[in-house]
Write a sequence for this structure.
């Protein structure tokens, strides 16, 4: 028996199915936390339009080394402080925020 795995992409905002070439990966950060969205062209443009007034008034910042963290250290800290985190994969943003706050990063 053969097995075939198919990857299907969906817009993170409206759940519209997307082909691989329709996916616009949008990366952004707020308060030291980085985020990623998979969006259609329309929703990527809406996102950029919504941020435009803020970006227009903002200035670019240098990367702050203090916001970088070692995932192994975060996982160990989280487990010690009764947060549930998987041994692999994405660490939930609330755990990262708590880690950064508690370690004054």
């Amino acid at each position: 028996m053969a097995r075939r795995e198919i990857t299907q992409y969906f817009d993170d905002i409206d759940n519209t199915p997307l082909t691989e070439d329709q996916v616009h990966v949008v990366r952004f950060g707020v308060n030291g936390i980085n985020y990623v969205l998979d969006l259609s062209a329309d929703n990527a443009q809406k996102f950029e339009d919504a941020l435009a007034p803020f970006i227009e008034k903002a200035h670019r910042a240098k990367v702050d080394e203090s916001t970088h963290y070692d995932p192994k250290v975060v996982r160990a800290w989280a487990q010690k402080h009764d947060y549930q985190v998987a041994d692999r994969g994405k660490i939930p943003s609330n755990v990262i925020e708590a880690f950064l706050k508690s370690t004054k990063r």
